[in-house]
Amino acid sequence: MTGRDAGLLAPTWAGTPVAGETDDEAWLRAMVDVEAALARAQARLGVVPDGAAKAISAVSADQLDVVELAVASRGAANPVVAFVPALMKLVPADVAEYVHRGSTSQDILDSATMLVVQRVRALLLADLRRCADALASMAVAHRTTLIAGRTLTQHAVPTAFGLKAAGWLSLVLDSIERLESLVLPAELAGAAGTLAAYVEYGRLAGVDAGEPLIAPFAEELGLAEPVAAWHTLRTPILDVGNALQLVAGALGKIAIDVQVLSRTEIGEVAEPAAEGRGASSAMPQKRNPVLATMIVTAARQVPAQVSVLAASMVAEDERPGGAWHAEWQPLREALRLVGGATHTAAELLAGLEVFPERMAANLALSDGSIVSERLNVALAPVLGKAVAKKLLGEATREASASGKSLRDVLAGKIDTALPLDDLLDPAQYIGDAPALVDRILRRYRA
After folding, report:
1. What is the CA radius of gyration of the chain?
2. Cα 207 from chain centroid (whole Å)
3. Which regions of the chain carry the CATH code 1.10.40.30?
4. 17-357, which class in CATH?
């Protein structure tokens, strides 16, 4: 029995645009596109008649039974061996001999994989640009909105929420740049990387159709022209995996910050509300941060998928037994997870609710001790650095234990004309946070 993989256990990508670009049918469409591109490229060189190339290009993947092909693929451990004769049956009898002419399974599937990656990349970039737009607006709106900076889970020094949003924006811009810089090459090499069969078919037609075929084939697919075979030189695949891992990690960082800031006892942000979103099966009061949860889920899984791609770099000879085959599912799952995460992140960030009043209330919880660093700088010239640090440690502990304000405790311990009220004002100790926001925004606008 064969069921449909709809993503029941993968809510991160289920129902998102990437699902339709990474399912079995998507890979089958890409394989059909590659065979058609090969025929057209060979027709340009005179190896295949123009009419045959047109007939092959007219075939639709919808004419093929993907379940039947999937089961048949067990016979050769790859789907192309079963796919080619099925494709040949869909063209006129006198055209069938021109299908897959001179090619090998890995040429077709590697090129199809790059087509799938290219199509998914367009989705990722569109969603990441939506994320960037939302974060840029957030950074501008909250350029000086005070929030507690936290290190090792504790209040550290004041910062601006706009700087946090701008930091998220920086990660998204890194992701966009990494995806845009990816080189996605076609694969055209023949059985052992020599183009021998392509050359031989060219000789029969009286033309040079080996190495000269590479450029038109890549052009027909809209992919980069490879320098040579990469059957066992898997840089393109690992480059894709590493880029996906970067995107997943970047979005995961943003999402886990949202999870923390939306805790009941913190309440500084909230996910956009929607009917039924964040509901619990047992607790009616819950509004779980489910968008962030789905993104974090992806970020935790993608590195494991990419590790298989890295391991598959160790591929023996000119064509490997197992290394290439091991790439297919992890790459697809990484594409799905990152595609779902980017789409979810765009929704999350476009509607993220920000509560400056809660940020201010939380900032006040430490009753001035959050600016101890500033007080230390101010008191060091008066008392000496070591004495000042010891005094502030004692004062903050006393304030916490007694319920007194840090200002009152300090006023009773030091005889100084220092302006304690100003020194204890968090708004006066966010350094150059607004200027740093502006630096990241300049990068975004560029």
Report:
1. 30
2. 44
3. 360-445
4. mainly alpha
State residue 285's pLDDT score: 65
Q: Is the pLDDT of residue 312 over 80?
A: yes
| Residue 187 near residue 106, CB atoms below 8 Å | yes
Collect all residues with Cβ–Cβ distance below 8 Å to 400 and sequence separation of at least 6.
369
| Residue 354 DSSP code | E
With contact defined as beta carbons under 8 Å apart, do 39 and 57 qualify? yes
For residues 248 and 363, what is the distance between their CA atoms, to the nearest angstrom? Answer: 31
Q: Which three-class secondary structure state does DSSP give residue 106?
A: helix
CA 350 to chain centre: 17
The DSSP string of 322-367 is: SHHHHHHHHHHHHHHHHHHHHHHHHHHHHH-EE-HHHHHHHHGGGT
DSSP state of 119: H
Domain with CATH 1.20.200.10 in the chain: 17-357
Query: What pLDDT, in 10s, does the model give residues 422-437?
Result: 888 999 999 999 999 9
If DSSP codes are grouped into helix, strand and coil, which group holds residue 32? helix
Query: Which residues are catalytically annotated?
Result: 280, 319
pLDDT at site 43: 98
pLDDT tens digit string along 111-143? 999 999 999 999 999 999 999 999 999 999 999
Lowest mean pLDDT among 31-35, 256-260, 408-412: 408-412
User: Over the range 219-230, which residues count as b (16 or more CB within 10 Å of their CB) and which as e?
Assistant: ebbebeebeebb
Using the predicted structure, report yes or no on whether residue 301 has a pLDDT greater than 80. yes
Residue closest to 43 by CA, chosen among 89, 99, 90: 99
CATH fold label, 360-445: Ribonucleotide Reductase Protein R1; domain 1 (1.10.40)
